[in-house]
Amino acid sequence: MEKPVTRSLLFFFLSAVLLAAPDPAPSLAAENLRESAVVRAVRRAGPAVVNLSTVYEVRTRAHPFSGFASPFFEEFFRDFFDPRFERRREHTSLGSGVIIDGDRGLILTNAHVIQRSGTIRAVLQDEREFEARIVGVDPDSDLAVLQISSSERLPSIPMGRSDDLLIGETVIAIGNPFGFSHTVTTGVISALNRSVRTDERVYQNFIQTDASINPGNSGGPLLNIEGALIGINTAIYAKAQGIGFAIPIDRARRIVADLLRYGEVKPAWIGLLVEEIDERATGPLGYPARRAVRVSAVEEQSPAAAAGLRPGDIVAAIAGKRIASLEDYYAATRPATAGEVLEIQYWRQGEIRSLRLRTVEFPLERADHLAWEAIGVRVADLDERSRRAHRIAAREGALITEVRPGSPIARAGVRAGDVIRQLDDSAIAGREDFRRALVRHREKATIVLLIQRGEQGYSLTLPLRPPREQARSACDSRARSG
Fold first, then answer.
1. Domains of the chain by range and CATH?
2. Active-site residue list
3. Are the CB atoms for 316 and 328 separated by under 8 Å?
4. Which of 187, 270, 382, 456 is 20–30 Å from 70 (CA)?
5. For the segment 423-445, what is each residue's pLDDT rounded down to a tens digit?
6. What is the pTM of this model?
């Protein structure tokens, strides 16, 4: 009778031991299931995502027209009113960035994150803090490159590629807002090659995603499911709800190369002057589409001239994108950087042809001729002698030395001795600034100049001369000189 009792006690004891013992196998299996591709991508990329804090001063001077004057004139009032009326305020702007070169400490972020910046602080995931300097900024693409110095190699994310993105593929947005731990959002690619219009400008060729992108993770990386860097998040569209945008990394790579080499982006020169045409207004085009973009002139010694394009050709597509309007044309060409190869399809004599064209940097020495033909002025640097001669209060600007008779700017009353302080959104400190700004905006239909005469200033909207007239004038000039 003792054997059954002994067996029962032994069974009870073993059961209790087994029930009390931990079971590592289920826990390990659960952990493996939880470690998804997203977790692995974030773990690899996270250390290279930084928080950026910029502190800057806003200086304002009280004057009789505070709150009423146009922004164009606020700069002039600052020149003329006593600095004792100055008010100062400090602001802090927060965003994210991503280290793309750990050896050199290069950080890629949005231009709007660091705009009007003073001291820039970069804080890493491990709470190390560095002071960053600006290497270069390109507002047109909303990109900026910063640099920090460290005695140790910093974590980084090598740039991937964005030319093979798929609609619907999973993407991951990472940010480091407000100095807290990383913020991670996921979603899919909703669309490619999106144009985004803001109050200041139109941005082209963005990646659209439903991953949440806000000011906190603006400037941070957009990753694919493999953890490759495919874009830079940007929170530029204030009205977006459930919509995020990112700058494709292929475009960012070209911008970064220019910023590192020159400190600015060199605009691409193609050499085509184009016009929009409509079959209903111009008659039969001989082209399948009723609306099209036609070459009105080809600038001499330009890449377009070397490639064989001629006036009258109809631009059908650029880089595979159909061109049916001027907006389409500029959306395809403005993001191009110098040295980039563009594939152009065009219609000539009843057939579609194609060519490959390598863009170059616009020769800055041609800017003086462009200023004379397109605007009607010649300019020089502003110095003390000219300031005294013309009683100019400003210390910076491009001095107008000659005005072409009969030009729109002459008819507007501008004369030699006036000073150009701003061209569109570009501040003009001297002749070189004016040349670069004119090259940058040369394809616009109109430009806005901020003109100063003595102690007075005014803005002036001017049409740039029509492309046909520019080309004809250039031909006439060559004929006279020959």
1. 46-147 (2.40.10.120), 170-262 (2.40.10.10), 268-361 (2.30.42.10), 364-468 (2.30.42.10)
2. 112, 142, 218
3. no
4. 382
5. 987 889 999 999 988 887 777 77
6. 0.69
